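Need residues for this backbone.
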């Protein structure tokens, strides 16, 4: 699997495994399926794994750490996130978590982008992962916490990076505008943009991607299926878009893109995975997987050959912006097996 090396930060495989589903996102995943998802991703060449305390109140980190425990530490990259500190909550442990994960509410999430909160959060993550360090730390969804996140939060992560405790620091969000402000004002190495650099939403191209390229900040693209609408060859009638029922307008647009894909011998999900990597600022696409089959499917989609004529027709029809050229080989970084 090909890898890309950002200007600042570790080499990342073009495909990363997003571990939210290992935390029982929306429904229960078995330990065996979680292990299978990681094993199949590894066998496919994936060496970048992303998680967060938020995902299943620590369950994702515990499962990911267990699944990687026998792998050579120098051969893979792990990112986790800070900003939601997990606080024990024994009085609610009999309830179901209300944060979107099928786990007991034995902890509550407390927003904290302060120095002590970040250090405590990272210490907990290392314990759950069974690691002595992670490679990348992102501030997680600081939408309503700009002031603290852009000052104390980033300063704390930079301190950890300068001490050699992490290799790269950044911010992960579901919006592009604030990420652009972090790139403009703060000393970040990477940003993870979820759902804003996709076949259906190119808002990251307005400011974030050009600015990141100019400043040498690597971009990790996540949620490239926009929560499901682009995950099947044809958009289903009950498809979701950004975690809500998809509107008729956006479903029709996805169907129009699917028509073009079929004319060029490819599929909508394959194009959805390939599209973000066409921009030279993007260093990896992170896809979630719940089991081995989904991990293998992700790898097959990445490996699909997408003809340039497909992108040209999509641009001609106004379905994607024109002028999005694939990065040169030198910008994409080196390859490894």
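Answer:
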């Amino acid at each position: 699997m090909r890898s890309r090396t950002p200007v600042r930060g570790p080499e990342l495989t073009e495909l990363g495994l997003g571990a939210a589903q290992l935390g029982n996102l929306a429904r229960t995943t078995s330990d065996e399926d979680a292990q299978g998802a990681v094993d199949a991703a590894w066998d496919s060449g994936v060496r970048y794994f992303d998680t967060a305390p938020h995902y299943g109140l620590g369950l994702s980190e515990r499962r990911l750490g267990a699944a990687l425990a026998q792998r050579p530490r120098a051969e893979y990259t792990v990112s986790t996130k800070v900003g939601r500190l997990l606080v024990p909550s024994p009085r609610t442990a009999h309830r179901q978590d209300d944060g979107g994960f099928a786990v007991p509410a034995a902890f509550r999430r407390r927003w904290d982008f302060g120095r002590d909160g970040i250090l405590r959060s990272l210490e907990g993550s290392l314990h759950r992962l069974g690691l002595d360090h992670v490679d990348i730390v992102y501030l997680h969804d600081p939408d309503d916490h700009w002031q603290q996140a852009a000052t104390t939060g980033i300063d704390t992560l930079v301190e950890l990076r300068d001490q050699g405790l992490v290799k790269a620091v950044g911010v992960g969000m579901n919006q592009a505008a604030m990420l652009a402000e972090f790139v403009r004002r703060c000393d970040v190495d990477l940003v993870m943009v979820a759902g804003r650099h996709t076949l259906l939403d190119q808002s990251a191209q307005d400011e974030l991607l050009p600015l990141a390229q100019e400043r040498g900040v690597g971009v990790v693209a996540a949620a490239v299926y926009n929560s499901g609408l682009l995950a099947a060859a044809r958009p289903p009638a009950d498809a979701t878009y950004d975690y809500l029922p998809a509107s008729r307008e956006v479903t029709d647009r996805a169907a129009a893109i699917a028509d073009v894909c079929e004319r060029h011998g490819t599929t909508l999900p394959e194009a959805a995975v390939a599209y973000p990597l066409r921009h030279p600022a993007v260093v990896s696409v992170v896809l979630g997987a719940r089991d081995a089959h989904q991990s293998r499917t992700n790898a097959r989609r990445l490996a699909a050959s997408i003809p340039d004529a497909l992108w040209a027709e999509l641009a001609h029809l106004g379905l994607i912006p024109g002028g999005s050229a694939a990065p040169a080989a030198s910008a994409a970084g080196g390859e490894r097996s």
